[in-house]
Amino acid sequence: MPLDRTLAIIKPDAVKNRHVGEILTIIEQNGFRIAAMKLLRIAKPEAEAFYAVHRERPFFPGLVTFMTEGPVIVMVLERVDAITKWRDVMGATNPANAAEGTIRKRFAENIERNCVHGSDAPETAAQEIPFFFSTAELL
């Protein structure tokens, strides 16, 4: 079976609360290979562009503020069925609805501060990965 790639972000709340090591361990324990990774701080124009699909939604301003409040870790994860598997490992967007043992159930504060991001479809991953990584950065 072919390997797929997905974008993953460890959001500012999880970085601030020092959950990075545990999240990276969960990633590796679930058979993902980290094809690229960097620590960065997203500027407001970048956050607005990245989340442009949500521009008309009422939560957009708060999302942009949240994603720019501190450093994040952006990664490209690779494995068979990476998008679906990463979404399973993350858990539901609302941690109150997330399954036990998922990242969001363990570490997320609430639906707005939900500690991780993942591409939701192959087409989304194809847009999100080059937003943060050049082809040369993918190992």
Question: Mind sketching the topology for me?
Answer:
Layout: E1 4-10, H1 12-16, H2 20-29, E2 33-40, H3 44-50, H4 60-67, E3 72-79, H5 82-90, H6 103-107, E4 116-118, H7 122-132
Antiparallel strand pairs: 1-3, 1-4, 2-3
Overview in brief:
By secondary structure, this protein is of the alpha+beta class. Helices cover about 40% and strands about 20% of the residues. It starts with a strand and ends in a 7-residue tail after the last helix.
State the secondary-structure class. alpha+beta
Question: In sequence order, what are the helices and strands, one letter per element?
Answer: EHHEHHEHHEH
User: What is the gyration radius calculated from CA atoms?
Assistant: 14 Å
Strand order of the largest sheet: 2-3-1-4
Would you give an account of this structure?
With 139 residues, the protein is α+β, with helices and mostly antiparallel strands. The chain has one domain (4-137): Alpha-Beta Plaits (2-Layer Sandwich). The chain contains 7 helices and 4 strands; from the N terminus they run E-H-H-E-H-H-E-H-H-E-H. It has helices at 12-16, 20-29, 44-50, 60-67, 82-90, 103-107, 122-132; strands at residues 4-10, 33-40, 72-79, 116-118. Strands 2-3-1-4 form a 4-stranded antiparallel sheet. The longest helix is centred in the last third of the chain and has 11 residues, at 122-132. The model has no long low-confidence stretch (mean pLDDT 96).
